Amino acid sequence: MTHWNHRVVHRVHKHEKFGEEHVYAIHEAYYNDDGLVEGITQDPVEPWGETLEELKSSLQRMSNALTKPILEWDKLPETSPSEDPPEPFGVTLDGE
Predict the structure, then answer these.
(1) Is residue 85 part of a domain?
(2) Who contacts 51 (Cβ-Cβ below 8 Å, separation ≥6)?
(3) 3-class secondary structure per residue, 17-28
(4) What angle do CA 12, 16, 19 make, to 5 degrees?
(5) Which regions in the chain score pLDDT beneath 70?
(6) What per-residue confidence (pLDDT) applies to 4?
(7) What sections of 1-96 are H helices per DSSP?
(8) What is the CB-side half-sphere exposure of residue 47 using CA atoms within 13 A?
(9) DSSP label at 95?
């Protein structure tokens, strides 16, 4: 059974003119049965809800991501709809 949660992801953008830009954002992370990150959303996610309570719950889940180890974009498995990720895929997560 796979599951997901919100995680902070660190990504480095390299610009010829400006050098490196470090960006931290919250993404949805998806795990395999072994607890390894199988993939993340391509773009960061936003809090949302159809009710105020759902919005609060979304913000709480995102806030919980700040207490977990940061995922490094460059160390995550590459996945696309047309190909399977290379083996072994995923990043072992501490305490999860």
Answers:
(1) no
(2) none
(3) CCEEEEEEEEEE
(4) 45
(5) 1, 78-96
(6) 95
(7) 52-65
(8) 15
(9) T
